[in-house]
Amino acid sequence: MDAIKADGLTKKYGGILAVDDVSFDVPEGEFFGLLGPNGAGKTTTVRMLNGIVDPDAGSISIMGIDMVKRPLQAKSKIGCIPETGNVYQDLSARENLDLVGRFHGLARIDRESRSEELLTSLGLADRGDDYVRTYSKGMRQRVSVACAMIHRPSILLLDEPTEGLDVHSRRVITDLVKKTNAEGSTIVLTTHNIEEANKLCQRVCIINKGRIAAIEAPENLRRAFERVQTVEVAFDRKVDIASLVTGHVSKAEAAGDKWRLSTDDPDEAIKHITRVAERERLKIISLSTVGPSLEDVFVMLTEGHA
Amino acid sequence: MNYSLFLRGVLTVARKDMRIYYRKAPVYIFGLLMPTFLFFAFFIGRDLDPAKYFPGFLAMTLFFTSSSVGPIIVPWEKQAGTFERLLSMPVTVTSIILGDMLAGAIFGLLISVIVGVVGIVLLGLSVTNVVLLAVLFVLGNACFAAMGELLSSTGGRVPSNVMMLSSLVRFPLIFISGVFISLSDMTGLGLVAAHFSPLSYLVDGIGASMDQNTVFNWGVDILSLLVFTVLFVFASGRVLRRSLMKGL
Fold first, then answer.
1. What is d(CA A238, CA A230) in angstroms, rounded to the nearest whole number?
2. Contact at 8 Å (CB) between A56 and A10?
3. Which of A134, A272, B90, B142 is 20–30 Å from A29 (CA)?
4. Which residues of B touch A91 (CB under 8 A)?
C-alpha cells in the first residue's frame, strides 16, 4: 500500500502558481526526499501533505485516508516538523511532548513512557523539565523531532529538520530518523542538503518552479546523467586554460590546485590532456574521472541544463 | 466528521491556551487593569448609586476579561513560530477557534464570578433570578471570547498590534452599551447604537436578574447574545481561514 498518494496537486497564492499538477506516490516504509531550490514549491507541497493548506486541485491520500475529506483521521497518521515548527518555549520539553501526546489521544502512561524514551534517545533526559526557552537551537530542534515522533506515526514529514544545526545535533536527529524508518515508518524529507538526501533517501523528487523535474533513486539519477562526466587533473605548474578546452571538453574550470574538465567522452579528454602535457612538458600529478554528483544532477535539472 | 477527535482537539487547544496564555502580561493589562481603572475613573469623586451601576460594571469586567485572552493567541503563535505545528496536529480551524474561545470564556468566567460575588456581598445587592444571571455569565463569556477570537483571526503576527485593534473595538462599545450611562437613561442615536452592541444585552440582562429597570426583555437579551456568539464564531472561521498563512 502507498503511504502517500498525491495526485495532481495544484496550489495558487494570489496569482502565483506555487505548485503545478504535482503527482507522486510514496510506498510504505520508503525514505523519500523532496529537493528543490528556494521557492520551488517544496514547502507548499509538504503543507498540503500534512493538511495545513488545502490544494486548489488534486487529491492526497494518507495511508488510504483522504486528507481533504477526513483531515483529522489523516493527520493522526502523520508526525510533522513544519518549516516554522517551533515548540512552545514557555513549556518544558516534557510538557511539549505531553501536549502533542494529548492531541494524538495517547493515554497518560504512554505519554510519559514515550517521552522518556525519546528524550533519552535525543540526549535531553536530564534537561527535560527545563523551559525550552533556555535551550540551544539544536536542543530545541531535538524537542521538535521528539514531538513529531511521540505517537509513533506511520509517516514522518520533515521540512529541513537539520537546517543550521551543529554536527552533534544533526547526527542525533539523523540517527533517530533512520532508526524510525528501519522500524517501518515512511519518511518524507525536504532538504537543501543534497549530500544528506543522497545518503538517506531511497528516492528523491526534484521540484522546480512548482513542477516535478525528476523522481528517481539518487544512483539512477546520476546514471541517467552520466553522459556528462568530469575529468580532474593536477599539473606540477600553471597551464593555459585555453589549451585544455577541445572538441570533447565543453568546460574547464579551476578547482583548488586542480582543473575540472566537463566532457561527454572521458577517453578523448584524457588523451587530449596527455598530449597537452607532453607538448608543454608538464608533469601530471593526479588524474581521475568523476561521474556527476547528485548536486550536478540537481543543478542541471533546476537550471535547465538537462 | 469524527466528533470525538474534534472534541479532543478543542479541549487540548483550550488546555494549551490556559497553560501558556493565562500567564501573559497583555491578558492582565487589557483584561483586569483596564476595566478597574475605567471603573475608578468614572466613580471616584462622584456621588453615584453603586447598586444602579453595578450591572454595568460587572458586564464591563466580564467583557474585558473574556475578550482579553483570544486576541493574543493566534498572533503570538505566529510570531513564536508554533502556529504551523499546531495546524499540523489533528485539529481543524474550527476546533482551534472553539478551543481558543473556551480558554477565553473560562478566564472571563473565573474573574467575573469572583467580581460578581464580591460586589454583590459588599454592596448588599440581591439577585432575584440566579439562574438568569448564571446563564448570562456563560453566554456573555462565550460571546465576548468569540469576539476576541475574531479580532485575533485578522492575520497580524504582532500581538501588540492586535491588542491595539481590540482596544479600538472594545472601548467604543462600553460607551454605547449602558455601562456608564444606564440604558434606561439613553435616548436618540445612543439608544439606537446600543441595539447593535452585544454588551448592551448583557448589561440589560444582568440588570433584569437584579430586578432593576431594563430596556429589553431578558429573553431578547439571551437570544441576542446567542446570535452574536454564533456570528462571531462563524466570522472568526471565515477570517482565520483566509488569513491562515499570513505571517507564517
1. 20
2. yes
3. B90
4. 19-20
Specify whether the CB–CB gap between B81 and A84 falls below 8 A.
Answer: yes
Q: Name which of A28-37, A85-94, B43-52 the model is least confident about.
A: B43-52
Q: Give, in order, the Cα–Cα distances in Å from A182 to each of A55, A147, A175, A199.
A: 31, 19, 10, 14
3-class state of residue B229 by DSSP: helix
ipTM of the modeled complex: 0.89
Q: H helices within chain B, ranges in order? A: 3-21, 25-28, 34-43, 50-66, 70-80, 83-88, 93-123, 130-152, 159-175, 188-194, 198-209, 218-243
Go through A68-96 and write b for each residue having 16 or more CB atoms within 10 A of its CB, e for each that does not. eebbbbbbbbbbbbbbebbbbbbbbbbbb
Asked if A30 and A186 touch (Cβ cutoff 8 Å), the reply is yes
Q: Cell 525528476, residue?
A: A214
Residue A306: per-residue pLDDT: 47
Residues 9-68 of B with CB under 8 A from A: 9, 12, 15-16, 19-20, 23
Q: Tell me if A115 sits within 8 A of A94, measured CB to CB.
A: yes
Contacts of A202 (CB under 8 A, 6+ apart): A30, A31, A32, A217
Which among A77, A80, A88 is the top mutation candidate for probing chain B, defined by the most B β-carbons within 10 Å of its own β-carbon?
A88
Banded model confidence at residue A126, pLDDT cuts 50, 70, 90: very high
CB spacing of A50 vs B88 below 8 angstroms: yes
Cβ-based contacts of B15 with chain A (< 8 Å): 99, 102
DSSP annotation of A258 reads E
- A96 sits in the region (left: phi over 0; alpha: psi -120 to 50; else beta) called alpha
How many Cα atoms sit within 13 Å of A269 on the Cβ side?
25
Is the pTM of the predicted complex or chain greater than 0.90? no
A304 has a pLDDT exceeding 60: no
- Whether the per-residue pLDDT at A202 is higher than 70: the answer is yes
